[in-house]
Specification:
Length: 460
């Protein structure tokens, strides 16, 4: 109702303005929005991802092909597309529907051709921001420009484009409800909140401003019904730009770390710890052997600046560190009333096991009895992993929803044994799993984050 009243107010104000002063009318606003849509639509694609999953029938161990749909936006005329990581998922095949161009010049009917279906390659996935970059073998494609999301303001009109429920090339309008929402306190990831209608299938599509520039990538909604309730969230374009550029350059996102846990200072925390300021970031923990410890950072230090940039909260500090992998940063801290300048080497965070998904080859990597996808621990996989206890085994690349491994194993786990039987690679794991008896207890000896442990699976 509030949104309806807002639109009625806008309409009334525009009509009065047009009558009294001859200034732009509602018709002018409508035509302006049409021009934005005409500019945006050719660059918005529909994405269909095909993967493997278990039959929905209770107790079934059969695996079948599953299909999911989403949206994406073309950012480079050579066929580079940004979408959400969850749209791509662990799929083995991705199809992208590229819209037809110059439709009004080619066709007179209001029913236009859907476009051209192309196979897409995954360039890189970043699950922390839920973003992914795809590449289609086409050139000369129409693109959209990434705006500066730091310039976005609450109340600004925006359009959400995509394929909700598979309905290709749909557009909705709304306003920016908030320019920066955090899902968790001090989370480095923030989102643009909007009341523009976003539904399943819109994920990965662009949120654009009145200039037709991308201010965000539609990512998720908060809803009790599962449909749009006017609370949608988009990854800001400045974060999208960083992720997109790094994936294009490195195939992944390089993030820095210095071995610190930093928290946002609040008035109660400042009073309790007798800190000299009620805003900023305070050091809660310093990791042993980390770069920050070597630089002399201490618990309860208040971080004032990093490379000259004033730090107002923990998220701001985290973002600055993430962006400076393999660089040396200068920290200015306040310790017991005295300012200190410290130089700290920012190291790249350990490699991301989620990159294992890009090495999967469909059925070849399926372990159906355990409901998982796995890879040989070989020369292609080892560089993606942290230091391991052994140089042979089977690496978990993903689990199937509702499968035996779904709640027990994590991506990057290395399986060394199954019921005392050595596992030197994927074939050993598949063979051992096929030989299991119904309801037989299954114990896997695995390595997870440098620690060995036993994991029990409930296998039918």
């Amino acid at each position: 109702m509030e949104r309806v009243n807002l639109l009625i107010g806008i309409i009334a104000a525009l009509n009065l303005t047009a009558q009294d002063t001859g200034q732009p009318s509602l018709r002018w606003v409508s035509q302006s929005l049409q021009r934005v849509v005409d500019h945006v639509s050719p660059s918005v694609v529909q994405i269909t991802a095909y993967g493997l999953g278990r039959e929905e029938e209770p107790g079934s161990a059969r695996i079948r092909t599953q299909r999911g749909t989403g949206s994406g936006v073309i950012l480079d005329p050579e066929g580079y597309i940004v979408t959400n990581a969850h749209v791509v998922g662990a799929s083995q095949r991705i199809q992208v529907l590229i819209p037809e161009r110059n439709l009004d010049q080619k066709y007179k009917s209001i029913l236009k051709p859907a476009g051209k279906m192309m196979s897409a390659q995954v360039v890189g996935i970043d699950r922390e921001t839920d973003l992914a970059v795809l590449k289609v073998p086409m050139a000369g494609l129409p693109v959209l420009k990434l705006a500066d999301s730091a310039m976005l303001r609450q109340g600004e009109l925006v359009l959400a484009a995509g394929s909700p429920f598979g309905l290709q090339n749909s557009v909705t309008m709304g306003v920016v409800s908030a320019v920066a929402r955090q899902v968790r306190p001090d989370d480095p990831m923030i989102y643009i909140q909007t009341d523009a209608s976003i539904n399943p299938g819109n994920s990965g599509g662009p949120l654009v401003n009145a200039d037709g520039e991308v201010v965000g990538i539609n990512t998720f909604i908060v809803s009790e019904s599962g449909g749009n309730e006017g609370i949608g969230f988009a990854a800001p374009s400045n974060i999208v730009r960083t992720v997109y550029d790094q994936i294009r350059k490195y195939g992944r996102v390089r993030r820095g770390q210095i071995g610190l846990i930093v928290q946002t200072i609040t008035p109660p925390l400042a009073e309790a710890l007798q800190l000299p300021t009620e805003i900023g970031a305070v050091v809660a923990d310093v990791a042993q052997g980390g770069a920050a410890e070597a630089a002399g950072v201490e618990v309860k230090d208040v971080i004032l600046t990093i490379d000259g940039k004033v730090i107002e909260n923990a998220r701001q500090f985290g973002v600055q560190v993430y962006q400076k992998a393999e660089q040396v940063a200068v920290l200015e801290v306040l310790r017991k009333g005295e300012k200190k300048t410290l130089k700290v080497a920012i190291r790249e965070r350990p490699k991301d096991p989620d990159r294992l998904i890009s090495l999967l080859k469909g059925d070849e990597n399926l372990v159906p009895r355990l409901g998982m996808m796995a890879l040989d621990l070989d020369e292609k996989v080892t560089p993606l992993m942290p230091d391991l206890r052994k140089l042979s085994g089977a690496v978990v690349a993903g689990t199937l929803e509702d499968g035996p491994a779904a709640s027990a194993l994590l991506t990057g786990d290395v399986i060394y044994e199954i019921n005392n039987r050595p596992v030197k690679g994927l074939k050993d794991l598949v063979d051992a799993a096929q030989g299991l008896k119904p309801r037989q207890p299954v114990a896997l000896h695995i390595e997870r984050r440098g620690q060995l442990q036993f994991v029990l699976l409930d296998v039918n």
